[in-house]
Amino acid sequence: MENVNIVVLLVISQSTNKRIKINMADSDWPITSVAVVTDLTKVPPAFIVIDRTYDKRQEADLWQDGLFGRRVFRYLCVERCAPSSGRDVLVDVAVVNEKDAVPAGFTCVDYTLDTREKAVKKKTLCIRMMASSLTSDAVSELILLSKGQRKPPMGYTLVGDLNNMALCYKMSRIIAPVQRQEVQGSSPPINMSNIAANLPYAMPGTARSTKTGPPERAFSNLGFATVTPMSGVPFKINPKITDLSDLADITIPEIYNKTLGDLERQYEYDFATERSVKPTRY
């Protein structure tokens, strides 16, 4: 049985300002990087190498060697980190033929991390990364199944073949820690009466300003240094429509419903004049 380390994350709630303990297995941490190496001794410290198949614990070499020549090795390795804001996570994996186009939104793992050689033979390993703040699920584990095994384990999704081994991945829910926002101090209350005094219209609950200075000076008192083209333009209703009683004498014509036949009879035109004109020959 696989050993799983349990860690405890301390999350500070913004609403209650209390610490909440969240138990999360490190095997469910999202994958933040995927690479291929040629030598097991050159795997970076933060990476986990996949050197054995998931089902039969056979060697998981991604390179298909010939009968003669120097032995070539390729091993898949991944980096998993605790959920954190600002880091991209793996959300999808694809395997395509070497000459096929890379799917939209994916990037290729073209070269080995340690020697910068071709990573996979006859295939292209493609990965899709996304900011952790934009997704609630991410790939937490990649496995390789032995030759001839095509049925993925429960909870895993089959991707494709790499050197006759089936690549599968498992999705897990991301539990992102909540960042604590420090309150430096409360802002001083805004005096609405001072603002209302500089507006060209009356605010509810305040008297209309009687200031007669230039509009530009009034905006400067509010702290705005830029004078816009609308500065000084009065905002008021046209005096012609201020008195609603003047609108009482307006007569609205009655609109009759007309059928299609009524419209055809009203706007009928037989083009008789045009037909009576004889064509002129030159």
Give a written overview of the molecule:
The protein has 282 residues and is mainly beta. 9% of the residues lie in helices and 27% in strands. It is built from four helices and eleven strands, in the order E-E-E-E-E-E-E-E-E-E-E-H-H-H-H. It has helices spanning 192-196, 215-221, 260-266, 272-276, and strands at residues 6-12, 19-25, 31-37, 47-50, 75-80, 88-97, 107-108, 123-131, 137-145, 156-162, 165-173. The strands form four sheets. Strands 3-5-4 form a three-stranded antiparallel beta sheet, with no helix packed on it. Strands 6-8-7 form a three-stranded antiparallel beta sheet, with no helix packed on it. Strands 9-11-10 form a three-stranded antiparallel beta sheet, with no helix packed on it. Strand 1 and strand 2 (19-25) form a beta hairpin. The longest helix has 7 residues, at 215-221. The radius of gyration is 37 Å and the shape is elongated. The model is unreliable at 1-24 and 206-225 (pLDDT under 50).
